[in-house]
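# nightly structure sweep
# worker-07 picked up a monomer target from the shared queue
# config: single-sequence mode, recycle default, output format = structure tokens
# input follows
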Amino acid sequence: MRILKYIFLLLFLLLIGLTVFVSTQKANYDVTRSKIIKNPKATVFNYINDFRNWETFGSWIKDDTSMKFNYPELTSGKGASCSWTSDNGDGNLKTTFIKDGDSIAQKMISNGEHSDISWKFKDTIGGTKVTWRNKGTLDFKSKVLAFFKGGINSVVGDTYEKSLENLNKTLDYEINTFKIKVNGVVNRTGGFYLKQFKFCKQKDVVKNIKIMVPRMLLFFKKNKMVMNGKPFIIYHKYDRTNDIVGFSVCMPVRDSIHIMPGSDIESGELKPYTALKTTLTGDYSHTQQTWNASYNYISKNNLIRNTSLQIIEVYATNMDDNKSPSKWVTEVYVPVVPKADAKPVYRKPTDSTTVSVVTPPTVTP
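# output follows
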């Protein structure tokens, strides 16, 4: 009996000693990890800049099957955010600062603990050097948990190392795996749509589309409207010389809708027309090659472009449908003058509430 008392006393003293030791450890931490990602800086920056992509490379997300993400209308750029729920705790992230192509600063709350996250991007031999940093303060419970896992530097460091490796593999395969197919001349059915128009510089097109598309979806949701087909973009003007792009983000609707004057959302109508359809299966960075494939086909087959109509991109499968960029499907329609011997293929509209964002090509429509 006396031996058991000594054992319990010894365990109690060990527990007290461990508690004192852990409590005296520094609560502040600063963990940094870097890796060279084998892709151009712009590609890596834009991918990390959008919270919707984090599910494809975050190792802690892949390891926690109970984690569910919620995305607001803005998921990239300054002010972007996301939140999550999990059996292991809830949290949220918000981007507070961004320098295009160079750095990102974010605030994170996880299980009630606050931390500062920063990203730095630098061109280097073999790709882009990405530096990921996390600074924060641990409460006593978190210090104890971190102690038994090898310390906070080990816990966060291992997670970041695995995530950066996932990022490298994801971008290396997903971004560079694509297929372009010229489907041929088709007859596009017309229809009504609602749109938001924007003029901007070429480098700001993607950023503006990523802001405008969620706003359009929110407009539909608030007004209990139903989309009648796939979202699409019409490029009205693409002036490389003066660096001006004019485009409309469009959501198809079944009937004509009257919009009150003064709204930044307008109604429009597409008339049926003949077009050369080309399909891109893969990331949007290959859109320019898709446009070029269309132009080459038109030239080789003696087709005539109908320059009175705009080129349209329809997003058949996008990041809301599938997280893998290699599986995204974008349909490019280049209007052409109908030929008497053409055999058009009619495309029936389908309902969808998903949206995609595309990098516009650098050719002039």
